Each structure stands twice: as C-alpha cells, then as structure tokens.
Amino acid sequence: MRFLLIEDNADLAVSVRDRLALDGYGVDWAESIGAAEDCLAGASYDLILLDIMLPDGDGRAFLSAQRSRENDTPIIVITARSEVSDRVHMLDLGADDYITKPFDFLELEARCRAVIRRKNGAASNVKHYGDLEFDSLSATVKVAGRVSELRNRELRLMEIFFSSPEQIFPKSQLLDRLFSYADNVSENAIEVYVARLRQKIDGGAVRIETVRGIGYRMSKQETPRP
Asked: Which of 80, 115, 154, 186 suits 135 as a labelling partner, its CA being 20 to 30 A distant?
C-alpha cells in the first residue's frame, strides 16, 4: 500500500517514512501543499498523513479542498493542537482520524491500520476468502491447517488482493501501490512477491492467477487443488 506524507519537518518526515517502510508501505513525502498536489496528480494513495502547519498554507484548507473534490482517500491529520474544538473541527472537515504530536510510532501504525480497515469495510484484522484465512495484524495466512508468516511487502500485496478478490491488478498498478517514487524497482519485483505468496497459499482452493498480458487476480476454485 502507498501513503502520502505531507509534513514540512524533515526529521519527523524521514522518521515516519522510514518506520512505515519497515512495515512494507511505500511512502511519498511532500514538504508542502503544492508538492502534495503534484503527487496526487501523478499517483493514487491508500492513505494521506497530513500536517496542519505547512509553509505554503493551512492543512485544513487542503483537507477541505480534497473532500470538496470528492477525494475519499482516508486522511489522518498530524497536529500539535490538543484542544477538543480543534480536533472536532478537523473531523468535521472530513478527516478520518488525527494524532497529536509528539506521538508514538506504534500508535501511528495502529491508527493507519484502523483507518484502512474502516475504508475497506472490515471490523476485524482477520479476513476469509474461500478456505484462506488472512490475519493482517499477525501477518499470517492459514490454509489447509498450515500457517505461514508474511514478510512486509508480501503482507501489503496480500492486503491489495484481499481488498478486491477476483479483480485483475496490472503489474504497473501493483508496483504503484507497493512502492514510492524513491524506490528504484521494476515490475520484476511484483513477479517475485507474487511467487512467494503462491508458495504460502499452496494446497488450498485460493490461487493467484496470471492473466496473460494484463496482470494478476486472486480467485478460488470449488475444491482445493490436489
């Protein structure tokens, strides 16, 4: 999954970006509203982390503008404001959540997961598709009684497939959602991660199939493969 971080404090931004990258998220960093608009013009994001005080404007105006454009990308506001009225105002403008500076990275990660779950209409970290069980919190898949751990990029790729079973995802789209502009990777990386997921869900009714010339999709058979 790919996030957009809008933050003018370089030290904080680098720390947040690097921490989320360890969890397998691709994170683009914009230091201003103008830079953020450029990012949004060229890519789609699963989540936006938005600071309020920015060098070229107020993050609240940016938030309001995104909602007026019917951009429903989840937005978590990062704010130093602790007054209840300020937080209520940001939620009323369309923020999905907020976190107050200084914050713990574990809390930030948890809030990101919670907002994404709500966006996908899921109340639990555990999801089922066919005979495949996927737990995004423990980063595991379970099939035919066998539990396999997922590494960071594998986890994020599985989240994408689970978000829309049976949908065909082109390699270019998966690359765009898994990696940031700063990541120097090719579509071959997607092939590697898909191959790893296939190994970990082998033996069940669910498979990740190649749609020749287009991309990949997760599908299920009526009976498990022998």
From this structure: 186
Query: Which has the closest alpha carbon to 29: 39, 42, 21?
Result: 39
Q: Which amino acid is at 83?
A: E
pLDDT tens per residue across span 54-70: 999 999 999 999 999 99
pLDDT tens digit sequence for 80-96 = 876 788 888 889 999 99
CATH architecture for the domain at 126-220: Orthogonal Bundle (1.10)
Going from the C-alpha of 180 to that of each of 62, 174, 201, the distances in angstroms are 22, 11, 27
Q: How far is the C-alpha of 70 from the C-alpha of 26, rounded, in Å?
A: 24
pTM equals 0.75
Cα separation of 49 and 25, whole Å?
13
**What amino acid is encoded at 224 in this protein?**
P
